[in-house]
Design brief:
Helices cover about 35% and strands about 25% of the residues. By secondary structure, it is an alpha+beta fold. It has a domain at about 1-50 and about 120-200: 2-Layer Sandwich (D-Amino Acid Oxidase, Chain A, domain 2). Strands 2, 3, 4, 10, 11, 12, 13 and 14 form an 8-stranded mixed β-sheet that branches. β11 and β12 (about 145-155) form a beta hairpin. α5 (about 230-250) packs antiparallel against α6, α6 (about 255-285) packs parallel to α9 and α7 (about 285-295) packs across α9. The radius of gyration is 21 Å and the shape is globular.
Length: about 325
């Protein structure tokens, strides 16, 4: 998958990040930036509207038909195929891939009513403004509990957001106020822009992802990274594996869908178990994790390797957990 993504044309990528500026702000007092220059692969930043359009166009070039503004109103399995009801009529297909995200109804309609997941949440605003440094991503780890606030550069503006990725309290956190205060530091008044919020279905254990002639993919499959809340890469990964499974099933492989569940659990889920352990320690003791991990160049380089698919959490988690535990002594 990484090799395929590296072939994407430059027009689908907004900018490349080559430096991190993590910061810890204790109890709202002024924090200090620590610049970490990435020594390996840069991080790709995309505008989701442009990137999603690019992916859709490539799918159509391969023969897919896109029906925009066509919500699914219901599904029913009849005979040997699914019938999908929409305002444009009923569409039929032998197999279905439910990839309608955390807010979509498909998983429930298919009978997946007790999916394993940790429910996180995030809000985000994307103002189109001049950006002085499009190669630097900012992170703030002291303003929200069990999460962070961010400023990711784009070629034509910012992506400013705050999120919580580990549920520690019954009452929902106020994510807007920390984001407003944080954005002020970049001279951006986010109150003048539309702020969007969305739930996050973070991975929380292996589970069945297939049913009668259908599979779950993307965030509907609860594959969001429980440590970073990264969702694009696991969504692309499950989408590719789902298409391979459907192709096999259409060719007569009776075990193709069951094998899809196995592949996702083994190739993605097994590593997410380590990501979850790391997240639990990191967000429980964020200051210790920041001092002994985040602001160190080697740690950031390893994190980038994980994000690029060149390393796995299993390769680094034990060492990271040991550092955090030693910092508590």
């Amino acid at each position: 998958m990484v090799g395929y993504l590296r072939k994407l044309p430059s027009g689908s990528i907004s900018t490349l990040v080559r430096s991190f500026l993590p910061k810890w702000t204790p109890h709202g007092s002024p924090g200090k930036w620590v610049e970490v220059t990435l020594r390996g692969e840069p991080i790709w930043m995309v505008r989701r509207v442009a990137f999603d359009r690019f992916i859709s166009q490539k799918a159509q070039e391969q023969g897919a038909t896109l029906y925009d503004r066509t919500p699914v109103r219901g599904i029913e399995f009849k005979g040997d195929r699914w019938q999908v009801a929409t305002p444009r009529g009923v569409f039929e297909g032998k197999y279905a891939i439910a990839a309608d995200g955390s807010k979509g109804p498909m998983a429930d309609w298919l009978g997946f009513r007790d999916r394993k997941r940790v429910l996180g949440g995030a809000i985000e605003v994307e103002p189109r403004l001049p950006v002085a440094q499009t190669n630097i991503a900012h992170f703030e780890f002291g303003l929200v509990n069990s999460g962070y606030v961010w400023n990711f550069p784009k070629a034509d503006g910012y992506s400013l957001g705050s999120g919580v990725f580990r549920k520690t309290q019954k009452k929902a956190q106020n994510l807007k106020t920390p984001l407003v205060n944080y954005s002020d530091g970049f001279e951006v008044n986010i109150n003048t822009y539309r702020c969007q919020g969305h739930p996050l279905f973070l991975w929380n254990g292996t589970q069945t992802l297939h049913t009668q002639n259908a599979v779950l993919a993307g965030e509907a499959a609860c594959v969001v990274d429980p440590f970073t809340a990264e969702g694009i890469r696991p969504s692309i990964f499950t989408g590719l594996k789902a298409s391979e499974a459907i192709d096999g099933a259409l060719a007569g492989d009776l075990d193709a869908l069951e094998r899809y569940t196995q592949v996702v659990n083994e190739e993605w889920g097994a590593d997410m178990a380590w990501a979850k352990r790391l997240a639990e320690a990191f967000y429980r003791f964020p200051l210790v994790a920041y001092k002994f991990g985040v602001k160190l160049p080697r740690s950031c380089d390893r994190m980038v390797q994980i994000l690029c698919g060149e390393a796995r959490y299993a390769d680094v988690a034990e060492r990271a957990l040991k550092k955090i535990s030693l910092g508590l002594v």
